[in-house]
Amino acid sequence: MYSSDTNRRWIKVNGQELKEGDRLNSIQLLAIEPQSITIRFDNDIIDIPALYEWGG
Fold it and tell me: How many CB atoms lie within 10 A of CB 18?
């Protein structure tokens, strides 16, 4: 969920709520934007559109 207040931004992945900076296994959530998120996966930075199912 995007919010202009960075403390209120979160996404849900496999039932787990994550905030910017959180890690899930080898994935780090870098940013939550209105229409996308940015993650770091295996030292690559990846932008993922909202409502996208990523297989890894």
Answer: 20
Every domain of the chain and the residues it spans: 6-49
Phi, psi at 6, each rounded to 5°:
-60, -25
SS3 24: strand
Produce one character per residue of 29-45: b if its CB has 16 or more CB atoms within 10 Å, e if not. beebeeeebebeeeeee
Helix (H) or strand (E) holding 27: strand 27-32
pLDDT of 15-56, one tens digit each? 899 999 999 999 999 999 999 999 999 999 999 998 767 666
User: Which among 28, 30, 10, 27 has a CA at the least distance from the CA of 19?
Assistant: 10
